[in-house]
Amino acid sequence: MLPSRPLLHAAVFALTVLQALASDTFIAAVYEHAVILPDDTDKPVSPDDALALMNKNMDVLEGAIKEAAQQGAHIIVTPEDGIYGWRFTRETIYPYLEDIPDPAVNWIPCTDRTRFAPAPVQERLSCMARNNSIYVVANIGDKKPCNSSDPSCPSDGRYQYNTNVVFDSEGKLVARYHKYNLFRGETQFNYPKEPEAITFDTPFGKFGILTCFDILFREPAVVLVSELQVDTVLFPTAWMNRLPFLTAVEFHSAWAMGMGVNLLSANTHNIRLAMTGSGLFTPKGPAIYHYNSGTEEGCLLLAELSARPRLSPTYPTAVNWSSFATSIEKFPGGKDTFSGAVRRDIFTFSELRHKAGNYTVCQGDLCCHLIYQMANKSKDEVYVLGAFDGLHGSLIKYHWQICTLLKCKSTDLDTCGQPVETAETKFEMFSLSGTFGTNYVFPEVLYSGVQLAPGEFEVLRDGRLKSKHGTSKPLVTATLFGRLYEKDPPHPLRTSP
User: Fold this and answer.
1) Distance in angstroms (rounded) separating the CA atoms of residues 255 and 36
2) Residue 112 exposure: Cα atoms within 13 Å on the Cβ side
3) How far is residue 165 from each of residues 62, 142, 175, 293, 492, measured CA to CA in Å?
4) Count of CB atoms within 10 A of residue 479's CB?
C-alpha cells in the first residue's frame, strides 16, 4: 500500500531536516590524562575508597570535558584506564567495577539514577555529557554475574571486562564495548566470548569503538572500517611507546591513513612507563597530535574533522600496495645483507653506504625497494634498508610484513634496530615500496624527537611511500608496516573463538 500524500510530505520534510542537521565537519577532542593511581595492595579496598580514587580522576576529566565543550567540541575521548589506573589483580579491581547495561535499555543515568543497581561512575559521566552538551567516551570496568549453567563461568561467579562507554549530549548511554584483544598483563579482565563490532550514528558521522591492543588485530578493527564503514574510530588507549615502529602517534596516524578513517586517540600519560602520545588523526594525516616525555601534565587536543571523510573530494584513492614493487627488477644495491634484531624480530638489513642509491632487500615473500638521496651523509650516522616477514610476539603472535628505512643507534651495525629518538641526517628524497601480500599497510614517517611529518610525504596508488620534497627535519624512520591477519595463529589465551 502506498503512503498517503500528507505522510509522504512529512517523511520528505523529516529527511530534509535530518540532512540539514547532519554536519560536514565536527569538532573532536581527546584528553591525555596523567592518571592518579591507587596504592599497591594485595587486598581489595572498600567500595568507598575505590569511588574516592575514581572521583579524583573524574574531577580532572570533568575539567577537560568542560573546557572542550566551551571550545565547541561535539565529542571527547578520554584514555583507557583513565579513571582508576592499571595496578590490579582480578580481586583488587572488583570494587572499581560497575554493572553496565546494554545501551538498548535507553538509559540516562544522570536523570534516572535508581533504575539499575547503584552506578555512581556512570551517573557522573552521564551528567558530564548532559551538563556540557557533548558526547563523552570513557573507559571503565564492567561486571557480569554468571553461574554453573555457563561452562565458561569463572570460579568467582562473574565476568569482568575492560569496557568503553559512550554517553551522548543528552547523557544517554549509546554504546558499550568490551575490549576483545587484552594485552598480556590484563589478567584482571576476561576475554569476551565473541568480538563486538560496536557502532552508533550521530549527526556528524558513524562511529566505531576500539581499545588499545585491538588496533593491531583484524577483529573488531578491520570489521568496523571495511565491513561496517564507520567514518571515525574512538580509541581510548594506555599505549607504551615502542620505537622504531610502535610509538603511539606514529602507528596511530599510520593506521588512520592506511584504513582511510578518522581515529580519535586518547592515551594515558605516564612517563615512567613510556606512555604519551595522543592525537586526532585523519586519512590524510594528523590534524593535531601531542607527544611529550618530559612532563607529568595532561593535555587537551581539539581539531575540526571531516564528518564523512569518504565523501570528501580529497579522500585518498585506493592503493595497490605491491603494484610498483612487483613491476620492477631488484635493485643492485642491497646484496650485502646482515641480520639484526628489532626487539625479538630478526630483520634482514643492508647498510646504505652512499649518499644516494637504489637498494633491494628481501626476506621470505617480501622484497623491499628503496630509492633515496641524503642531503648530507654524516660519518656518525648509519642508515639501513630492512625487511621483515614473519610472526611478531612472544605469547600472542601476529604476522607482520615490514619495509623500513631506519637509522641505527650508532655506527656499529649490531645496534641497527635498537630504539633511536634523534637523528641529524635529512633526506632530499626517498621512495619506499614492497611486494606486500596484504591490502592492510600503514605508512609511517618519523622525524627526530618522535615528531610526525604531516603533509611531507604521500602514498602513490602503486604503493610507493614517497617524500614530497626534502625532509624538513632529520629522519629516524620511514616504514611501510603491513599486517597479514589471515596468517595469525590461533590466540593462545581465548577459550572461545
Assistant:
1) 29
2) 11
3) 15, 10, 6, 28, 28
4) 25
**Model pTM above 0.85:** yes
Residue of 158, 170, 106 lying closest to 133 (CA atoms): 170
Neighbours of 189 (CB within 10 A): 21
Residue 12 scores a pLDDT above 60: no
Contacts of 347-351 with C-beta under 8 Å, sequence gap 24+, read: 347/386, 347/387, 347/388, 347/402, 347/404, 347/416, 347/417, 348/386, 348/387, 348/388, 349/384, 349/385, 349/386, 349/406, 349/413, 349/416, 349/417, 350/384, 350/385, 350/386, 351/382, 351/383, 351/384, 351/413
Q: How confident is the model at residue 438 (pLDDT cuts 50, 70, 90)?
A: very high
* 18 and 202 Cβ atoms separated by less than 8 Å: no
Taking alpha carbons only, the member of 249, 239, 246, 250 closest to residue 273 is 239
Residues 359-382: pLDDT tens digits?
A: 999 999 999 999 999 998 888 999
Quick: pLDDT tens for 236-247.
999 999 999 999
The Cα 258–Cα 482 span in angstroms is 10
Q: Round to whole Å and give the CA distance between 399 and 389.
A: 7
- DSSP state letters, 245-290: TB-HHHHHHHHHHHHTSEEEEEEB-BGGGTB--EEEEETTEEEEEE
* Cell digits of residue 233: 574510530
Peptide bond into 220 cis (omega under 30): yes
CB 481 within 8 A of CB 442: yes
95-153: pLDDT as tens digits = 999 999 999 999 999 999 999 999 999 999 999 999 999 999 999 999 999 998 999 99
The pair phi, psi for residue 139, each rounded to 5°, is -115, 120
- Catalytic machinery residues: 80, 179, 212
The answer to whether residue 17 scores a pLDDT higher than 60 is no
Residues 6+ apart with CB under 8 A from 246: none
Q: Retrieve residue 345's grid coordinates.
A: 624480530
CA distances from 363 to 192, 322, 398, 407, 487 (A): 36, 15, 17, 19, 16
Span 330-364, pLDDT tens digits: 998 778 999 999 999 999 999 999 999 999 999 99
What the block records as the C-alpha cell of 136 is 563523552
Using an 8 Å Cβ cutoff, are 361 and 411 in contact? no
What's the CA gap between 66 and 73, in Å, rounded?
A: 10
